[in-house]
Structure formats: C-alpha cells, structure tokens
Write a structure and sequence with these properties.
Elements (H helix, E strand, L loop, with lengths): L3 H35 L4 H72 L1 E2 L3 H8 L5 H18 L5 E15 L2 E14 L2 E16 L5 E6 L1 H4 L4
Antiparallel strand pairs: 1-2, 2-3, 3-4, 4-5
Helix pairs in contact: 2-3
C-alpha cells in the first residue's frame, strides 16, 4: 500500500483555510462600515430637519407680524383717543373763555349803568347805551329820558362797585348773564346814603362782537329808596 491519499487530504485542508480567511475579513469590514454609516443621518432625516426648521422660522415670523400689527393698532387707537380728548378739552376751554368774557362784559356794563349823577346825565346815558344794538339804544334812551323826571328833582347820585356775574343761559353765541353791583345811593330823601345791591340781566351776542341786545333791571336801579 502507498501514501498519496494522506497528502491529498492535507492539500484540501490548506486550500479550505485559505478560502475562509478572506470571507471573514470581508464580513468584518462590512460590519465596521455599517457602524460608521449608522452615525450619519439619512437623506430622509435631513429633509425632516429642514422642514421642521422652516416651520419654526415661519411661525416666528407670524408671531412677530401679529405683535407688530397689534402695536400699530394700539398706537392708532391711542392717537385717536388723544386727538378726540384734545378736541374735547379745546372745546371746553373755548366755552369757558367765552362764558368768562360774557360775565365780565355784563358786569362792566351794569357797573357803568348804575353809576349816575343828576348833574351829568349825558355821561350816564352814554354808559347806559354803550355797545348796545340800535333797537336797544333807542329803548334805553327813551327810558332814561323818562327817569330824568325822578332823578333831577331828587338830586340823585349813585356810585357802583362790581360784585359778581354769572351766565344764566346761552344758546349758540347768545349769552344771558345776571350781573350784581353794590350801589351807594344818595338823594334828597336819603342824604346820608343807602347801600343796596342792584341786579341787571344782560343779553349779548358773541357772534356780533358781544353786542348787547337786551337789558333788564334798569328801572329798579333808579327806583326811589
């Protein structure tokens, strides 16, 4: 018997070992590549992140836009309120100033009308008809002429000091004012003088440079005491 069979088996074993080794190495490299590849995001993951970032950015822009719009609306409303309030204040100030003017003019007129001296009735008549409408001037002139029949015989003199005036009513530019003056009257019946308060109702039109259109109380101011 011979030994060739044993050598053939040895060759077969060696050949098999050489073939198995490359396969094992290939598997190892494949596993390493898989591990490295697992650390990188896939193409699908990148797309999701981009979309998420875009949504966040868009939402932020919307929020900022809403805030800016809200501020603009608030500023607009505030401006309207301030302007409206300013107009209201201006109207109130204008009305107050007009009332003050009416009261002062009425008080000045009443003080002049209550100041008289039987020796100088011309000056009194001028004060009585000052800044009055033509119709009222005619009426007051007629009234003063009638009162002279009482003033002169009684040797009437009076001095007046303003007290106060108040707007009773006003409609449009027409003001009706009550004016009060303190009057010291001396005449033949009261040579030492009598202190009294005279009241006048003065109507004037601010649209006509405060022209006086009506006066009440003149007769009472010169009635015998």
């Amino acid at each position: 018997m011979s030994t060739p069979t044993v050598k053939a088996e040895k060759n077969t074993t060696d050949t098999g070992d050489d073939t198995a080794t490359p396969a094992t190495g290939s598997a190892t490299r494949g596993s390493a590549n898989d591990e490295k590849g697992s650390d990188r995001p896939t193409a699908g993951g990148d797309s999701l992140l981009a979309r998420a970032s875009g949504v966040k950015l868009g939402l932020k822009q919307v929020v900022v836009g809403v805030v800016v719009l809200g501020m603009a609306v608030a500023i607009g409303i505030l401006g309207f309120v301030v302007a409206d309030k300013s107009d209201t204040i201006s109207a109130m100030q204008s009305e107050t100033a007009a009332a003050t003017t009416a009261e002062q003019r009425a008080l000045d007129y009443a003080t002049g009308a209550a100041d008289m001296n039987y020796k100088d009735l011309g000056a009194w008549n001028s004060r009585l008809t000052a800044n009055t409408s033509p119709e009222l001037t005619a009426k007051l002139t007629e009234a003063s002429t009638s009162m002279e029949q009482v003033i002169v015989p009684l040797q009437w003199t009076s001095t007046a000091q303003p007290i106060a005036a108040s707007v009773k009513s006003h409609e449009g530019g027409v003001y009706v004012v009550s004016a009060f003056v303190s009057v010291m009257t001396k005449n033949a019946q009261a040579p030492d003088g009598v202190q009294s308060t005279a009241s006048y109702t003065v109507t004037m039109d601010s649209s006509k440079d405060w022209l006086i259109t009506d006066v009440g109380g003149i007769d009472g101011a010169v009635a015998p005491k």
